[in-house]
């Protein structure tokens, strides 16, 4: 039996990425070109700039991945590409590149959901055991996903407004910190004290949904009111108080879902998984639990990359799932 090699391509937001995964779990090549520097001065990702960068970087990133792998086209079993959700123009650059390669080289094409990719990043660390629960926290998503088998995703809770990372970035902006603000808040939070009373959106008994826009507004209002009274809060205490609220809600709801669904594994996924406070809180709460394995991937696999897309694509490939050349970008694709 020959080895399976999946080429992954990811261009849904502001990273241009290509990777090759062997037999579903082993990283053979993993290349990411970040555009953060280009978007920084605008305080967020500018879609048109993102697309242009992807077009420039795609060939370079793809060729580097092929070079690192020492493989040829004849070795590639399938090309997995992010079909959504994401920025439509950004997604199209990756999809068109994948289609061109698939057509010209006669290689099967597989469209992958970006969040399925984030979850499958965990399979590059450990074999998945079902049923499992994944806490997906990124710049665009905050979701609790229940999986009873491979490629079976049930969203049991999601954000009703802002994603966790979005809230981090907006609060950071209010504090005058550069984009993306998550890492800056995280750093400040460790120097400060959680001494400002901020709300937690529980959204009713038994709900696994999230809401972070009220928290963001509460931070802005609290700072505004304090200023009018001549009080100045320290940025580090604002960061610590905000982070405490986010982590409290994320960890509490995750714990309730773990109990309800009696899962064997708890996976962390998405860019906010880089948050030190969240990683520590999850470890404290879950790492010594019997019959539950907590998996937290390294930072490089939590933020956007193509290895995770290839890992998810590998499972779809084995299930016989293929996309045809009519594959299109789907910015609002459901999991
Ligand atoms: O998954 P990701 O790379 O892109 C999306 O698919 O959205 O996540 C990016 C998000 C940004 O909002 C960024 O501020 C946040 O992840 N982030 C963090 C940390 N590192 C990145 N948020 C909190 N603490 C961090 N250490
Ligand atoms: Zn992402």
From TrEMBL:
Residues annotated as domain Gcp-like: 26-310
Binding site for substrate: 136-140, 169, 182, 186, 275
Cofactor binding description: Binds 1 Fe(2+) ion per subunit.
Subcellular location: Cytoplasm
InterPro entries hit by this protein: ATPase_NBD, Gcp-like_dom, KAE1/TsaD, TsaD
Function: Required for the formation of a threonylcarbamoyl group on adenosine at position 37 (t(6)A37) in tRNAs that read codons beginning with adenine. Is involved in the transfer of the threonylcarbamoyl moiety of threonylcarbamoyl-AMP (TC-AMP) to the N6 group of A37, together with TsaE and TsaB. TsaD likely plays a direct catalytic role in this reaction.
Organism of origin: Metabacillus rhizolycopersici
EC id: 2.3.1.234
Necessary cofactors: Fe(2+)
Positions that bind Fe cation: 114, 118, 304
Protein name: tRNA N6-adenosine threonylcarbamoyltransferase
Keywords: Acyltransferase, Cytoplasm, Iron, Metal-binding, Transferase, tRNA processing
First-level EC class: transferase
Predominant location: cytoplasm
GO MF annotation list: tRNA N(6)-L-threonylcarbamoyladenine synthase activity
Catalytic activity, as annotated: L-threonylcarbamoyladenylate + adenosine(37) in tRNA = N(6)-L-threonylcarbamoyladenosine(37) in tRNA + AMP + H(+)
HAMAP family (UniProt xref): TsaD
Highest rank taxon of the organism: Bacteria
The family this protein is said to belong to: Belongs to the KAE1 / TsaD family.
Source species taxonomy: Bacteria, Bacillati, Bacillota, Bacilli, Bacillales
Pfam families attached to this UniProt entry: TsaD
């Amino acid at each position: 039996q020959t080895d399976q090699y999946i080429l992954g391509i990811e261009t849904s937001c502001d990273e241009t990425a290509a990777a090759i995964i062997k037999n579903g779990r082993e990283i053979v090549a993993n290349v990411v070109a970040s555009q953060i520097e280009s978007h920084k001065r605008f305080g967020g990702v500018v879609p048109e700039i993102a697309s242009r960068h992807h077009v420039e970087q795609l060939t370079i990133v793809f060729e580097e991945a092929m070079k690192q792998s020492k493989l040829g086209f004849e070795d590639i079993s399938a090309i997995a590409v992010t079909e959504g959700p994401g920025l439509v123009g950004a997604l199209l650059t990756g999809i068109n590149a994948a289609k061109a390669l698939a057509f010209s080289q006669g290689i099967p094409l597989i469209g992958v959901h970006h969040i399925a990719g984030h979850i499958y990043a965990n399979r590059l660390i450990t074999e998945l055991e079902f049923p499992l629960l994944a806490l997906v926290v990124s710049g665009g998503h905050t979701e609790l996903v229940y999986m009873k088998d491979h490629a079976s995703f049930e969203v049991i809770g999601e954000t009703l407004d802002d994603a966790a990372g979005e809230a981090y970035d907006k609060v950071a902006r209010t504090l005058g910190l550069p984009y993306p603000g998550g890492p800056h808040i995280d750093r400040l939070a460790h120097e400060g004290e959680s001494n400002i009373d901020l709300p937690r959106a529980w959204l009713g008994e038994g709900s696994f949904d999230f809401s972070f826009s009220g928290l963001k507004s509460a931070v802005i209002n609290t700072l505004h009111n304090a200023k009018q009274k001549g009080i100045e809060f320290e940025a580090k205490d604002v960061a610590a108080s905000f982070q405490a609220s986010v982590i409290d809600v994320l960890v509490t709801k995750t714990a309730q879902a773990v109990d309800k669904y009696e899962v064997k594994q708890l996976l962390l996924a998405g860019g906010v998984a880089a948050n030190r406070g969240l990683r520590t809180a999850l470890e404290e709460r879950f790492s010594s639990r019997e019959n539950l394995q907590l998996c937290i991937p390294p930072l490089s696999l939590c933020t956007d990359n193509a290895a995770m897309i290839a890992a998810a694509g590998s499972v779809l490939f084995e299930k016989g799932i293929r996309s045809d050349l009519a594959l299109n970008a789907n910015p609002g694709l459901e999991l």
